[in-house]
């Protein structure tokens, strides 16, 4: 197992980059348009990736590892919360099907205070499950990965490097 924190952060960055790349592949090559909650989950993956990349490049000491691990844990918890809500919407779609506006339009048209409740309420698009792998939807896989990244962040913050 990788015990050097720099490799843990680099591996986390690589995993996030692959997940983001796969999401872009599904969007552009397979035509699966992301819903607003999918986009927010991508932002959380990007945040984890950026934090991990900076930590991998810097090779921080104990305090830095804890700070980067804490920031990664916060981004993973945020993404995990969004993914949990998304999974819930997939399994419990609203009675009234409403596709709503796309994320770009909402971002351009509404102030942030009005936009966030609309995103978390979910639109009809967030209830669709257009793709599955091993019986799990994209949102369910995202939740699995956020839990993994949370565990990795906590481990990276606590691991003592092997010399």
What does this structure look like?
The protein is mostly helical. Helices cover 73% and strands 2% of the residues. The chain has a single domain, classed as DsbB-like (Bromodomain-like, Up-down Bundle). It has helices at 5-28, 36-58, 62-91, 103-109, 112-121, 124-127, 138-158, and strands at 132-133, 136-137. A two-stranded antiparallel sheet has the order 1-2. A hairpin with a 2-residue loop joins strand 1 and strand 2 (136-137). Helix 1 (5-28) runs antiparallel to helix 2, helix 1 (5-28) runs antiparallel to helix 7 (138-158) and helix 2 runs parallel beside helix 7.
Q: Give the N-terminus to C-terminus distance in angstroms.
A: 14 Å
CATH architecture: Up-down Bundle
Mean pLDDT: 79
Percent of sequence in beta strands: under 5%
* Tally of structural domains: 1
Question: Main sheet?
Answer: 2 strands, antiparallel
Shape: elongated
Contiguous runs where pLDDT drops below 50 for at least 5 residues? none
Order the strands across the largest sheet as they lie in space: 1-2
CATH homology superfamily:
DsbB-like
Helix and strand succession? HHHHHHEEH
**How helical, in percent, are the residues?**
over 70%
Number of strands: 2
Question: Radius of gyration from the CA trace?
Answer: 17 Å
User: What name does the CATH topology carry?
Assistant: Bromodomain-like
Q: Mind telling me the CATH class?
A: Mainly Alpha
């Amino acid at each position: 197992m990788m015990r050097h924190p720099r490799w843990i952060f680099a591996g986390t960055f690589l995993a996030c980059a692959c997940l983001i790349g796969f999401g872009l592949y599904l969007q552009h090559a397979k035509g699966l348009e992301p819903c607003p909650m999918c986009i927010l989950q991508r932002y959380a993956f990007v945040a984890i990736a950026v934090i991990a990349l900076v930590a991998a490049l810097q090779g921080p000491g104990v305090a830095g590892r804890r700070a980067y691990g804490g920031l990664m844990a916060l981004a993973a918890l945020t993404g995990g919360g969004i993914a949990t809500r998304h999974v819930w919407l997939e399994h419990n779609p609203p009675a009234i099907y409403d596709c709503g506006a796309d994320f770009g339009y909402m971002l351009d048209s509404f102030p942030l205070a009005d936009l966030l409740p609309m995103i978390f309420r979910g639109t009809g698009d967030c209830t669709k499950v257009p793709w599955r792998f091993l019986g799990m939807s994209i949102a369910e896989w995202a939740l699995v990965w956020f839990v993994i990244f949370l565990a990795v962040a906590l481990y990276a913050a606590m691991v003592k490097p092997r010399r």
